[in-house]
Known about the structure:
Layout: E1 8-11, E2 16-19, H1 52-61, H2 65-81, E3 85-90, E4 97-105, E5 108-115, E6 119-124, E7 128-136, E8 142-149, E9 152-158, E10 162-168, E11 175-180, E12 184-190, E13 193-198, E14 201-205, E15 213-217, E16 222-228, E17 231-236, E18 241-245, E19 253-254, E20 268-274, E21 278-283, E22 288-292, E23 303-304, E24 318-320, E25 326-330, E26 336-340, E27 370-376, E28 379-386, E29 389-396
Antiparallel strand pairs: 1-2, 3-29, 4-5, 5-6, 6-7, 8-9, 9-10, 10-11, 12-13, 13-14, 14-15, 16-17, 17-18, 18-19, 20-21, 21-22, 22-23, 24-25, 25-26, 27-28, 28-29
Helix pairs in contact: 1-2
Amino acid sequence: MPIELPGFYFDKERNRYFPLSSKPPSSQSIRPPSTSDSDDFGQIKQSPKVSSWNVAEIARTSHSSSKRHQASHDLLGRQYSNPKRFLERDIPIFGRMKSFLTMSLDGALYRFIGDSRGWLFSCTPPSNNIWQADINLHAESEVSSISASGSRCVATSFGPAAKLAIQDLHIPGYAVLISDREEVVEKKLQENIPNKWAAKKAVYMNDVDVLSIKDLETKSDVFAVRQHNNMIFTGCRNGSILRFDKRLDYHGQKLYNDRFLNQQRTSVLHLETIADWQLLISHMNGDLMIFDLRFPRENSPLVQFRGHRNTYTQKLGIALDPSQEFLFAAGEDRQIRGWSVQSGQLLTPPYEQQNTDNPFAQTFPSVIETMQISSEPEGLCLWAGHDRTLYQVFWGRQ
Length: 398
């Protein structure tokens, strides 16, 4: 009797396992989630699977490395869909929560929140759980992003006044506020190299102390950006994705431009590199997909995450787990969903928890605009924020 493996079916005629996605529709036992049946995340049902104990036994005793990996992947997915705890905190900020960052430096925890009125707040748990206002970038511009590298914390504003705030956490009270003549759309800081983005171009800053700047022409407003090693990826309002190589000239190469041949263009909201050769792309029309960076002219995604909801919202929370095996995204319908990165399969909470306070089985009061996954003393956590409320989902030790 063949063992039932999550995501696979056993073909008796060919005497081997195959992915469920390749099984004929007439005999498929698990119905893949679609846009139409994902209006309510809690209503997507999965057929019975082998018990967690049996899956753990496969992961521990199987002689097949692929079976062990698949079983371990399935166990991790079950852990993510069934959190240990779920906390809700009201944060005393002036505006709506627009960005969030938690980080550790020299064994100390730092947390930051940016609001819609341009204020940057911080706290240092567990010694100090009081949120204090550090700096105001501009009263009419929201804090669109917060990121860190080493002891530097950098925040950017989006709105009538584009500003960049730099704090050195090793120097209490140290903060530098930099104004720019153009509207900053988004900024990220990775590997001690900050980047900020302006209207219809990206601006690459090699050093925040020297402030040497190079323009990266995009010919469209930049809504998303990601730096990976020597590559800078930009996602634009007109749907274009460009790749810039810092070692060469700063002329961008368009990626996957043929994907709009048979459909209307839509803005790119988020970019993320996965395993060095994949690019996660989120569009304003709700498309959430992974493409292969080795084939920049390919117009078909490797994986498509069905069920994600968006039609016009520019800022929605999105996060990958540390192993980059699972993706979590907030939808315009005020729900948070999770998927397997390798298969695109939607995570669902246990049936008995679909009417409880499991965060993946409920609708939040408003859209989740910022999310992050971090390793905390209690284990792995998912942070999600909206308005003046910060949620913390505890997964525990992995």
